[in-house]
Amino acid sequence: MPVGTASADAPVRASLDDLPIRDDLRGLRPYGAPQLDVPVRLNTNENSHPVPEPVVEAIGKALAAELRDLNRYPDRDAVALRADLAGYLGHGLTVEHLWAANGSNEIQQQLLQAFGGPGRTALGFTPAYSMHPLLALGTGTGWQPARRGADFGLTVDDAVAQVREQRPDVVFLCSPNNPTGTALDPEVVAAVLDVAPGMVVVDEAYAEFARPGTVSALAVLPGHPRLVVTRTMSKAFGFAGGRLGYLAADPAVVAAVQLVRLPYHLSALTQAAARAALAHRDALLGTVASIKAQRDRIVTTLREWGMRVADSDANFVLFEVGGEQSVAWQALLDRGVLVRDVGLAGWLRVTAGTASETDAFLAALAETR
Question: What is the value of pTM for the model shown?
Fold first, then answer.
């Protein structure tokens, strides 16, 4: 049979091993969580509350207004959207301090493209967001895992010692941390900034769910041009399907990421939908208090049952199952409740959703104990 042909009953299907893929990508699996059709899905930290109808209508009108001009490229720098984001964050920030992209993952990828890359390293304190080392890999940045304490906390002394030892070009700090849930003491951020030779990125994807008195790293931004705070609209805003993340930093950082961003990376429809959502933020953020109440209910109930639970400032709870976590995960799934196995031995993570979803989770967990 000639090269490049195949019989009708034997179609050729290549595997990754047949392709000249990079050696450091061989054997890896893509990031992702199971997307299963079950009654209760509490594994991806989405906002379980549907978008309110008035906001649906407002977003629909905003999208419709863009349709006639889809033959034109969108605003390459999303200036109006960035101005709206600055107004939401406050802290004296302006459009020059903000940058937006398709989720905070793309924001962090752009930061690694600008400040990481071959011959440079990034450091994160594990367990933490599992996309950070994958983003490092994808940008050719070396990854250095650092450690947290036995309670998943991070002290000033421990953080400083590890940054001094490793001297990474980029440090990732998660506050609140995923998958453990606890926010950082702002003194940790300040101390790491004092000793880090490069950029310090504070991932605040869950900041809106933090408990009272929690201080955002946004308060540390003035006078620290190597500090970046990343946020997302996916969680508290219930805008996960809209894919909008952003950063706040010194204007020089914004100028740096503009060097590596793809042209017209944010569609006109994404920008319009995000602006409409921000204009109705009171309605969208109205679910935050309810979600926090369910989170605290889960923490309190599980501790009353004698289970070990990590403190949480996020919209999820990390809890110890007292055995093989994959077995506990399957037992909950068998009862119609999907939670997240984050690969942490003996622990599972559950998203705080609606009251009825919490009822279902607690009932299923009680049956497995």
Answer: 0.93
